[in-house]
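Hi R.,

As promised on Friday, here is the backbone we talked about, encoded as structure tokens. Could you run it through your design pipeline when you get a chance and send me back a sequence?
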């Protein structure tokens, strides 16, 4: 069985199937995932992030109940909201990050970072540019609403390697509750069409993952969701709810006792960074992590930030299980309903 490390909130089903498909595409992919496992297990400290996550636009066309976009602006987590003038990342800034990364060993990017990437007008240009710069794994997470047949074809032909579609439901009724949308059937059909188009084009990539954030409102549909997608999607992710100060109570397991014996470690600052649409750098991709102090790409580089004294200290703190000493990390780790130790 192929090893996959996630010490936080995600259980990946069929990872062997996913890994074996994509390793045949490129030997470099296998090397990259091996490095990811070593860094995730705190065995090696790289001199540049393995993955960078991009908030291409500080906006979303859904208002999911568990997401801060559904909260009033003044109640959203610290660092979540960006001034209107900076809500769209410039393509020049994107290229600047990719250029530095391609010279220093960047292996993967994620297009989205808690937003909807398909509303970014130059999304295909981003994928093509990253591919041209030899980024091995080009990933994107979408709510699937704008994943039309034409868009699917462009994504498949552009060089995308991994597409994740968020469902969090297996019925129209539950989709309306969890995602505040009446478009379950449309999103479902868009995802199935994507797989059919990929098959007809005779192209192996991008592989498709479907995700399900488990809450009190949808947990009764988890097994049906997994059963339906088991022989369709390449990868299935079942995630634990990450709670914020204003997460609706109806989504939370209020009868669940506070998790005991939490290990205050986290591999995210060992593997990745996140870039907000205005160029602010964050040491992880979690929403609570947006509260970290503002350091902008206008005043530093990715390499300098990654190798700074502060980042090295943060990584060591999380390696030895002392994340509780950092107020942001402590709050984040304790906000996960079922943390994977």
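Update: got your reply. Pasting your designed sequence below so it's all in one thread:
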């Amino acid at each position: 069985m192929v090893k996959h490390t996630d010490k936080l909130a995600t259980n990946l089903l069929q990872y062997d199937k996913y890994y074996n498909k994509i390793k045949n595409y490129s030997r470099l992919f296998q090397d990259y995932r091996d490095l990811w496992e070593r860094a995730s297990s705190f065995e090696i400290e790289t001199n540049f992030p393995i993955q960078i996550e991009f908030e291409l636009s500080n906006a979303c066309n859904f208002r999911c109940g568990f997401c801060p976009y559904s909260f009033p602006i003044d109640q959203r987590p610290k660092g979540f909201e960006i001034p209107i003038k900076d809500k769209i990342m410039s393509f020049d800034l994107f290229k600047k990050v990719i250029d530095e990364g391609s010279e220093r060993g960047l292996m993967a990017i994620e297009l989205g970072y808690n937003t909807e990437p398909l509303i970014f007008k130059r999304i295909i240009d981003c994928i093509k540019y990253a591919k041209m710069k030899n980024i091995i794994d080009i990933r994107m997470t979408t709510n699937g609403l704008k994943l039309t047949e034409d868009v699917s074809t462009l994504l498949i032909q552009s060089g995308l390697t991994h597409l994740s579609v968020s469902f969090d439901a297996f019925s129209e009724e539950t989709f309306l509750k969890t995602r505040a949308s009446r478009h379950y059937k449309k999103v479902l059909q868009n995802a199935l069409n994507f797989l059919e188009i990929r098959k007809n084009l005779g192209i192996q990539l991008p592989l498709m993952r479907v995700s399900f954030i488990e809450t009190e409102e949808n947990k009764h549909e988890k097994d049906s969701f997994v059963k339906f997608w088991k022989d369709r999607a390449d990868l299935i992710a079942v995630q634990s709810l990450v709670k914020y100060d204003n997460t609706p109570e109806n989504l939370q397991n209020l009868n669940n006792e506070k998790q005991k014996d939490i290990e205050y470690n986290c591999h995210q600052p060992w593997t990745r960074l996140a870039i907000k649409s205005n160029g602010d750098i964050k040491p992880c991709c979690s929403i609570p992590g947006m509260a970290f102090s503002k350091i902008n790409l206008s005043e530093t580089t990715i390499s300098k930030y990654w190798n700074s004294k502060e980042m090295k200290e943060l990584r060591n703190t999380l390696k030895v299980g002392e994340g509780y000493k950092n107020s942001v990390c402590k709050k984040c780790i304790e906000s996960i309903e079922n943390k994977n130790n």
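One thing I noticed while checking it: The first strand starts at residue 10 and ends at 13.

Thanks again,
M.
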